[in-house]
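Tutorial handout. Part one gives the primary structure; part two gives the three-dimensional structure as tokens.
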Amino acid sequence: MDLSNLDQDRLPKHIAIIMDGNGRWATKRNKPRVFGHNEGMKRVVDVVENSLNIGIKYLSLYAFSTENWKRPQKEIDFLMQILIKYIDDQLNKLVTQGVKINILGDISVLPKKVIQKIEYALDSTKDNDKLILNIAINYGSRQEILRAVNTAIVYGEILTDDEFSKLLYTRNQPDVDLLIRPGGEKRLSNFLLYQMSYAELYFSDIYWPDFKLESLIDAIYWYQNRNRRFGGLK
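Part two.
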């Protein structure tokens, strides 16, 4: 697809994606849910590549929420395995492309092998700045905000918005401009609630495994035709 029609001056700096619909996509094909997750991981590779090509600077992907622990253990184990596989398969490429990985969430409760892989990926990409890739793992926005509030209490000071923002996992990053949620659901699912105060919300009926470049471009076109007033009258 031709990217030249995108207005480079009106690109969203920060895109957040709730990668929804893997399980339902698989079920419709009489496949196990893990088949959908595996296909969904291919779209992660694609969306990172496409974001780089388009010129997006910050990309936040909701990979595993604090609520996802309620899923069957077999499915949880598979999700951890494909995260390891993603790092093993893509890390060298991400380093070369200038992608910096940042984790949103508490990874201390993850399996030791997963933690080690994540820490290695963080260290390997720490000096990159072409694209900041936020991967939300064991993440919940309410928990993030509560964590920041508790830290602020320890400081014993009244904080400004900017100061409070620096206590979040997305510290020093711009707020989300565009939230994309494939899969047909229309809710935020406890994702980046503080950071999405003025985000444009784009909902698609396409399941995540089918959300390819054309779908991403459609979302950005839609965003560029929005009149973002930020509470004003323009």
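Part three, for discussion. The chain has a mean pLDDT of 95. The chain has one domain: 11-140+175-222.
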